Amino acid sequence: MAEHGLLVDAFVYLAATVIFVPIASRLKLGSVLGYLVAGCIIGPWGIKLVENVESIMHFAEFGVVLMLFVIGLELDPRRLWAMRRAVFGGGGLQLLLSSVPLFGVAMLLGLHWQAALVASLSLALSSTAIVVQTMNERNIQATPVGRTTFSILLFQDIAAIPLIGLVPLLSDQASSESGGPVWLSALKIIAAIAAVVVVGLYATRPTLRFVAKIDSRELFTAFTLMLVVGIALLMSFVGVSMALGAFLAGVLLASSEYKHALETDIEPFKGLLMGLFFIAVGMSINFGLLSTAPLLVLGLLAAVVGFKLVMLRLFAPLFGVSKVQGILFGSLLSQAGEFAFVVFGVAREARILPGNWDAILTLVVALSMATTPLLLVLHDFLAARKTTASKREADVIDSELAPVIIAGFGRFGQIIGRLLFASGLTATVLDHDPDQIELLKPFGFRVFYGDATRLDLLHSAGAGRARAIVVAVDGVDECLEIVDIVRANFPALTIVARARNVTHYIELRKRGVTIIERETFEAALALGRKTLESLGVSPYEVKERSDRFRRHNIAMLEAILPHMADASKRVSLARQAREELEEQFRREQQLLARPESAGWRLDLDDADDSEEAAE
Amino acid sequence: MIDLVFAHPYPKRSRANRILLNAVRDISNLDVRSLYDIYPDFGIDVESEQAALLSAKLVVWQHPLYWYTAPGLMKHWFDKVLARGWAYGEGGSALHGKLCQWVVTTGGDQEAYSATGMHAFNFESFVPVMRQTAEFCGMKWLEPIVVHNAHRVSDKELHAVGRDYRKKLISLATEAQELVVHG
Ligand SMILES: Cc1cc2nc3c(=O)[nH]c(=O)nc-3n(C[C@H](O)[C@H](O)[C@H](O)COP(=O)(O)O)c2cc1C
Fold this sequence. Notes:
The structure holds two protein chains of two kinds. By secondary structure, chain A is mainly α. Chain A contains 25 helices and six strands. Chain A has a six-stranded parallel beta sheet with strand order 3-2-1-4-5-6, with helices on both faces. The radius of gyration of chain A is 32 Å and the shape is elongated. Chain B is of the alpha/beta class. The longest helix of chain B is centred in the last third of the chain and has 28 residues, at about 155-180.
């Protein structure tokens, strides 16, 4: 059975997820709590289905790495630079506000100052995993609270590096087995970051382009994962948080055309590993310890969560967060995070934390993660009671979101895109031909590599929030597939479609699409007009003829539409096609015989023939 | 230069306006801008229309009377070309001092344009809109050339009007030329 161990474990995790997450979501507690509860139940203190918690936790932390990579993809260097004040000012302030009272508490409990310092600083850091997952679920990343919160998390990720480095220095033993003097490790860190920047800026894009051209989705996914794993390994090797390294790599690729494809490929791995991470946290909650020292543990939990929440609530205006949102802001960041696990581990080795303190603190961290969803539920409840009277705060919408998605940026889609750009509108462009993308980039278009028939890609392209999607892909089947997906998943999105021919037009109409243009029809009509003009017919008269021709043509198409559902009728229609065409020619001839306005001759009883002197 | 702005949706089917236009179109330095031929989709190129006006000393508006005013595209031409800050309003002096000659054909005869006639008003009652359009832009309004009863009037009569029309444009043009030379 041993060789099945991995599969058995995987089955247990997946089953626990499938059972508990929907329950938690149903109860509006958020998926995080579902995972945590699942972890508690299958873990060593529950029904003991899984034992090796620590190694799983280690593996699952890669979910956090992937998550930060994806977050990085959303932030190009320009936006990141614009955030610098919020990150360093806000982040620094949060760290100070939270760690000072916690330091006091630790000293009161009789810890040595070194231990108190390490404990308070690491408890002050929050859990990026929990907070980002929660913000995503509540769709508040783009709000002011969301942005501020994220800036603080980013600072914490950066602050964790020196913090982990600090621990051995505080130890009396000054045991420096973990590699050489400080300057050397600093140098290593700088070298590693420089390597990531260089690779991210110069090597990745051409490689991605090459891989994309091979046109195998698995290969692209494999390459993406390899990239992130590689960077994470490099970073952990030099002692930088893996997540931070991945974040950096993400930022460097944020302005690349493969952004959406990368995001979409990583997404499922990220989701599953994050879930596993939360399960691992749940499993690591040591209920034995909780029952032996309930007062100490719960008291500490109350102190950690309480101080972190209250301090942020009190000083919310300093972070640019309104008073009303202060509780939400404080609750979001109230837990201690995954960095604390790492720091406590290092501290134990350096013998900074006495006795079973590291186990107690780890327990407090895990419990604090479980309190966050509960606090948010409480917050929602209180807020709902309050807002029934007062009116809702205006929705804050991400201003960078493009109102239009163009799927297919060949010669056809391009013209539409250029017209939109010229009108000051941005469009998110999806195309799966890397050559096309490369060709267009110098002209300043934002073109992304990807297959628009993928629901997840449409999601990350913002189909949920865009106003319209222009389907201008070459393939008829591909086009219809996109239309089906959009209609099923984004009913509010206006579909604008290019039809390759009449059959395609009819297929689109059958799907309820109303804004359709046959790709050759208007061009042919325009050239037909020029032909008539060149024969000497007055341009305006020609225009009227072509207008009438168009109206009639579309009316005919609409007339055969109801018969198209009926297969037998369709066959007979096909047989009739030739006769139809002849009939059509005849009718059009009659139709175009007279000019639009036959005159205004109220005062004439009889037509004056000399007037019809057309030449 | 003479800028002749001509508006007839079916110039080839026109009789009255075609005869009149043919009487003047070969005058030297006369630029005929047949709006329905140049802009059948109503997408008037404002810059080039304004450039044509600027280079002219005499502006002619010629068209059949449709619903007591100019055909739709001519009205659209007024809306687009006579822009604020260019033709009127602050800095809008591009047309100041130019001469404006209106040439119009109508379906009704003298009797129809009377208090008891089909159109209930004198023809003069329908002139002010055109006239004020020109004068609001600082142009000098000339005595209009009006051909009534355009469906019935004979080709001969139309040719006669055409000859007068031609003479008038030529003399106005030379007058303007002299003004430029001596002024
Ligand atoms: C749409 C339309 C509206 C007209 N409105 C008037 C009008 O309001 N008063 C009038 O006297 N004639 C009216 N007419 C008659 C035209 O003025 C007449 O057909 C034209 O002057 C003939 O010139 P042509 O031979 O160059 O087309 C109208 C004609 C049309 C087609």
